[in-house]
Amino acid sequence: MSLKAARNFYENSQPITACDFDCTGEFCVTASADESINLYNCVQGRHKKLILSKKYGVHLTRFTHRHTDIIYASTKENDTLRYLSLHDNQFIRYFEGHQKRVVSLEMSPVSDQFASGAVNEGVRLWDLRQPTFLGFINIENGRPCIAYDPSGIVLAIGLQNHDNVIKLFDIRKFDQAPFTTLNVIDNYALPSSHPRPPIQPEWTSIKFSNDGDKILVTTSGDVHYVTDAYNTDMKRRLIGHVGLNNALQLLGGEETSWTPDGRFVVGGSQDGMLNFWDIEAPLKNSMILAEGIDSRPIHTLEYHVRPTQVVRFNPAKLMMVSGCTDLVSYI
């Protein structure tokens, strides 16, 4: 990895909590705990617009398939999802239904559908063109993590508080049972003297690689997991970073990202470091089973002095951003 910092932006007074690129990779949008939305032009390398959301708060900013429009989750007043035009700072539509804090929000990569997950409540499927939800999966306890596969046909729901499983749904049959359930068991999370299955750090997000073959499970602790997307094969335990431990604040999950080729995972850390893991590096042989699938960073970058809560690789251009209270772009 030969990425180097190209530009620093100091638009926020509190930590950046979410980040997304548009489909072309030309624009980047962020959310911050200071209740602001910031838009950046990645080609020109400049800050483009500031929008405040003081009344409703803001988290999980996500571009639609138009670089002028985003959806995001409220953090104050209610749990409504908001569809906003960045062009004129006008709301296009509201999506009401969640009664608990929304902790996951993802656009379909191929259509106007999107999915949202609320803690201790459930997952809802929506369409940008109508205000009512299309489907609902009840989850009474826990924090649902959601992700679309690259085809947009499969929606994965990670349920760490339900025996550490990822359920795969056919989006065309969302009201039916999952067609596959993956068990993500980490037998090395605690010494063998503890009850099985060992307790894992709280999951905060799941992400498919661009080839659709692997799923990255981000946790609030000192380990992330890479699993096969369609069986129970645990490929890697990613270690060597310091977990953010911010799950109680209903944050987290934005600090990891796949590179577009699916070979590397980039992740932030409590100590401000950026860590790069090579998923295809040969695994060493070891008599200790955990070491046999443990991967440590092959490269680190040090640009932040506070916890790095946001990391995102550009889907279309060779660049990356990371954020604490400042945003750094790398090329």
Automatic annotation (TrEMBL):
Keywords: Nucleus, Repeat, WD repeat. This is Uncharacterized protein. Belongs to the WD repeat SWD2 family. It is found in: Nucleus. InterPro entries: Swd2/WDR82, WD40/YVTN_repeat-like_dom_sf, WD40_repeat_CS, WD40_repeat_dom_sf, WD40_rpt. WD repeats lie at residues 95-129, 257-280. Its main location: nucleus. GO terms for biological process: RNA metabolic process. It comes from the Eukaryota. It comes from Rhizophagus irregularis (strain DAOM 181602 / DAOM 197198 / MUCL 43194) (Arbuscular mycorrhizal fungus). GO terms for molecular function: chromatin binding. One of its GO terms (cellular component) is Set1C/COMPASS complex.
